[in-house]
Design goal:
eight-stranded mixed β-sheet; 8 helices; disordered N terminus
Length: about 325
């Protein structure tokens, strides 16, 4: 499952790795595709930008004419307190959305990708879908939860993994994935929905995981980026994705066997690695992310040992990154 044939030749990853080593190389692939055809439209790599929204959330802007197209992944920016990071987690914490804050950070998306249905991934999506008309791509569980919260059925695309969806200016590939495991080899609110819930969700415990996905977004003539929402994966589903950039969730425990080396080998050791889901997502985006005690350093050490030619980018909330995940000036 790959978009290399449609979106540029195999040299793009080499170019990204060259940039990681300081080589002065272009990021725009050759004009001809792998099928020998010249794309009808060209999009300069510099016209794509990324912003980290914390947790596993991202905003991707494809700047072009006549308008900028925005794709979101797991846009959770309200970031309310449940006590999770202070040892006093309350599963009955009410769900709420700071609408002004969401508008400020999320813009007006045309597509929202949801990796799974836990609150720190889905919470702000119902408001975004209702207020912008954006298409939401997610699991059957995501579908039923959104319907119970007033999102129109026609806005929601249910996927399972393996789908390749063509949009104007970019392609989204869906991969089956897995949720992180805690030290007891389990996780919060497992389960799936095959029908709308009896009542609309009101608390964080009302939102089950509902299966987990990953998304690979490939803008026209620009590097591809994989987005993970949790620190486990389906190794067979990930082989063949070969993203140029990988937003990889930092493991929350050591329960998953050889998580980092297995993951990076399955992905073909991407040219750029970006650790995500290591920050305290109950602190506002106006504060810098806390790095101490998050498992980030261990992830970085393992990544360097497994894929030394990959460029590691530790993101922050305020930086706008270009198509190659370098800060834009």
């Amino acid at each position: 499952m790959t978009t290399h044939a449609r979106h540029g030749g195999p040299g793009r990853r080499t170019l990204l790795r060259g940039a990681a080593l300081g080589a002065a190389v272009p990021l725009i692939p050759a004009a001809a595709s792998a099928e020998g055809r010249t794309p009808a439209r060209r999009r300069r790599a510099a016209a794509v930008s990324y912003r980290w929204l914390g947790t596993s959330g991202w905003r991707i802007d494809l700047h072009g004419k006549p308008k900028t197209r925005t794709v979101l992944v797991d846009p959770y920016v309200t970031r309310f307190d449940t006590g999770l990071f202070t040892g006093s987690f309350d599963p009955a914490t009410p769900l709420r959305t700071d609408e002004a804050l969401v508008r400020e950070h999320a813009g007006t998306p045309e597509v929202v990708c949801v990796t799974h249905t836990h609150w720190d991934h889905l919470n702000d999506v119902p408001y975004l879908a209702r207020s912008t008309g954006a298409r939401v791509i997610g699991t059957e569980t995501t579908y039923h939860v959104l319907r119970s919260l007033g999102v129109e059925a026609g806005q929601i695309s249910v996927v399972k993994g393996g789908e390749v969806l063509a949009f104007d200016g970019y392609v989204i590939e869906v991969a089956s994935s897995r949720h992180s495991r805690n030290g007891s080899y389990s996780y919060f609110t497992p389960g799936t929905l095959h029908a709308p819930p009896a009542a609309a969700p009101r608390t964080v415990s009302d939102l089950p995981e509902g299966d987990t996905l990953a998304f690979k977004v490939t803008p026209d003539d620009a590097p591809s980026a994989l987005f993970m929402g949790a620190s486990d994966f389906d190794e067979r589903s990930f082989r063949g994705l070969e993203p140029d950039i990988a937003m990889v969730a930092v493991a929350s425990s050591a329960s998953t066997h050889r998580y980092v080396p297995r993951l990076l080998d399955a992905l073909g050791r991407p040219g750029v690695l970006v650790p995500v889901h290591w920050d305290d997502f109950e602190k506002p985006l106006s504060r810098p992310p806390r790095k101490d005690g998050t498992g980030l350093d261990d992830f970085l050490a393992q990544a360097r040992g497994t894929s030394p030619r990959s460029r590691l980018v530790v993101p922050d909330y305020r930086t706008v990154y270009g198509a190659d995940l370098r800060p834009r000036r």
